[in-house]
Amino acid sequence: MPSLVLPRGGPKIVITDGFLVAAASMALLNRLELDSTYAAHIMPGMILISLTTAFQGATSGLHHEDSGVASALINTGQQVGGSISTALLTTIASSAATDYLTSHKASALAAAQAGVEGYTATLAWGSGFFVVGALIAALLIANRALEPSEGEPVMAH
Q1: How does pLDDT run across 136-149, given as a tens digit for each residue?
Q2: Of 54, 2, 18, 10, which Cα lies nearest the Cα of 148?
């Protein structure tokens, strides 16, 4: 789908929508409870998050000789962002679980619920980060169709 929208609408639409789809998937996953099932509570969010894309929008419109550098920059950005977000979201999860455990009587059920509280807090924050990303993309990315990269087929508009 993004490969159909990108040449006509430009990266703004694809990237903004990608962030919003990711936010929606995190919101779906945020419904987790102790008795949640995979098919009803996890799989829908996982399917939705698999639909997001970034590479095509970031490398379209570049000269062929620049596409390798752009791909490397995207990979580096994703790894740095992944490292920072893992540290941040792990801190959020730990804080939420600790807050839950300190306010409830210690038991196996409380420990399990604390884990769920950690996950749902992390997913809520993650969803919020994706919404902020969508707003930034919508405001900062130019709303124009991209020129085809060298060697790409030219599509009629």
Answers
A1: 989 998 776 656 55
A2: 10
